């Protein structure tokens, strides 16, 4: 395998022009741990960093020694030297949605919207809400200018890049025929137009009332009538954040494990980011298995173990040789999977992080991961 260019993590963290790092990748590849380790190392190197996770798993809080994470950045109490600081938070999509309503509607209208059953359903479970709110929260953090580095830990699998589609999807929703029909009477410019639109809407409303019931239709109309005032600004902000993600101050880091499915997902992310003209920093390959006795091949190790077993000698040594054989075979499989990626994406910088003997569950473990990210496996 032609050796790819190394991913220089410290150069990215030390570059004060880098303001946003987005970690994306399949589920179960150590993406959350990578994001947290990058945040800790950045703080150790003098940055004021905040890690935003939108992954529903709560490993980040545990590894940082916090009892919980919520929608407000919390200071991680560490022995960080110098001026660096580390904050962490977990996206609460409903709370973020509520904050948008409260900030962009007068108190009475905000109260009506927040208590509306359609809003409650939309803010909690509507498809794409999490991605909308991730885009909004990232924009809020960036506009506040309280942190000089924001690290985003995205949801697992391909949905990690769905927030790139948030502005367009939101626009399609707001511009849909059904929404326009419900808001048309309130937007009529004159009385004749109002009567005409109201008459047309009345026919539809009559049919919908029979189908849904009068109260349900009223709730729906009340909710929809507030959409333009509240969401128009959000759509604009989401588009602004999208352009921010394309700017030179952003770095996307794709995280993968050296396994077939995870490396295929990594290829998908790299290709999608290129299509969207997003700045890709490189690939982190987590949990790479290496051996301190790499000079002893799997074939020679297996042969030596077989020889000892046939003679009935040195059973413990034979068992160790068998373990080494399995380790080398696993390393060879992982190497082949990485070869496939590199052959398809030869210009993408790569850093390997070797597999740890135990799960990362504290700041010391995150510090060690940060060192491995900086130096390679």
Explained architecture:
This protein has 377 residues and is α/β, with parallel strands linked by helices. It is built from 16 helices and eight strands. The chain has helices at 9-14, 31-44, 59-63, 93-104, 107-114, 117-125, 129-144, 166-174, 177-187, 191-212, 214-225, 227-246, 260-275, 298-311, 315-344, 363-375, and strands at residues 20-25, 48-53, 74-75, 85-90, 149-153, 250-256, 280-288, 350-354. It has an eight-stranded mixed sheet with strand order 3-4-2-5-1-6-7-8, sandwiched between helices. The longest helix is centred in the C-terminal third of the chain and has 30 residues, at 315-344. The radius of gyration is 26 Å and the shape is elongated. Residues 185-213 have low confidence and may be disordered.
Number of strands: 8
Give the N-terminus to C-terminus distance in angstroms.
17 Å
Oligomer: single chain
Counting DSSP H or I runs of 4 or more residues, the number of helices is: 16
| Protein structure class | alpha/beta
Mean of all residue-level pLDDT scores: 80
Low-confidence parts = 185-213
Order of secondary-structure elements: HEHEHEEHHHHEHHHHHEHEHHEH
Query: Order of strands in the sheet with the most strands?
Result: 3-4-2-5-1-6-7-8
The percentage helix is 55-70%
Percent strand: 5-15%
Outline: elongated
Most strands sheet:
8 strands, mixed
Query: Radius of gyration in whole Å, from Cα?
Result: 26 Å
């Amino acid at each position: 395998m032609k050796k790819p260019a190394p991913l220089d993590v410290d150069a990215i963290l030390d570059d004060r022009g880098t303001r946003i790092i987005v970690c994306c990748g399949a589920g179960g590849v150590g993406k959350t741990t990578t994001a947290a380790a990058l945040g800790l190392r950045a703080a150790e190197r003098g940055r004021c960093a905040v890690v935003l996770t939108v992954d529903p798993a709560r490993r980040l809080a545990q590894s940082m020694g916090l009892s919980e994470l919520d929608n407000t950045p919390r200071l991680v109490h560490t022995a960080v030297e110098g001026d660096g600081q580390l904050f962490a938070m977990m996206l609460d999509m409903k709370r973020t949605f509520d904050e948008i309503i409260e900030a962009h509607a007068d108190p009475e209208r905000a109260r009506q919207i927040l208590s509306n059953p359609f809003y409650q359903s939309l803010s909690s479970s509507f498809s794409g809400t999490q991605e909308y709110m991730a885009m909004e929260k990232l924009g809020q953090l960036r506009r506040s200018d309280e942190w000089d580095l924001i690290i985003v830990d995205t949801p697992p699998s391909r949905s990690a890049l769905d927030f790139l589609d948030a502005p367009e999807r939101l626009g399609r929703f707001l511009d849909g025929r059904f929404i326009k029909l419900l808001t048309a009477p309130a937007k009529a410019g004159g009385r004749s137009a109002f009567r005409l639109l109201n008459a047309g809407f009345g026919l539809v409303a009559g049919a919908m009332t029979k189908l849904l019931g009068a109260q349900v239709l009223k709730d729906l109309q009340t909710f929809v009538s507030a959409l333009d005032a509240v969401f128009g600004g959000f759509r604009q902000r989401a588009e602004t954040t999208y352009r921010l993600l394309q700017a030179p101050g952003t770095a996307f880091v794709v995280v993968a494990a050296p396994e077939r499915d995870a490396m295929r997902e990594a290829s998908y992310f790299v290709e999608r980011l290129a299509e969207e003209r997003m700045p890709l920093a490189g690939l982190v390959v987590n949990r790479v298995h290496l051996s301190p006795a790499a000079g002893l091949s799997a074939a020679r190790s297996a042969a030596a173990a077989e020889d000892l077993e046939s003679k009935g000698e040195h059973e413990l040594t034979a068992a160790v040789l068998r373990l080494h054989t399995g380790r080398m075979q696993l390393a060879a499989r992982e190497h082949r999977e990485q070869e496939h990626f590199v052959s398809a994406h030869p210009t993408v910088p790569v850093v390997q992080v070797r597999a740890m003997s135990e799960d990362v569950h504290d700041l010391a473990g995150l510090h060690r991961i940060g060192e491995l990210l900086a130096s390679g496996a």
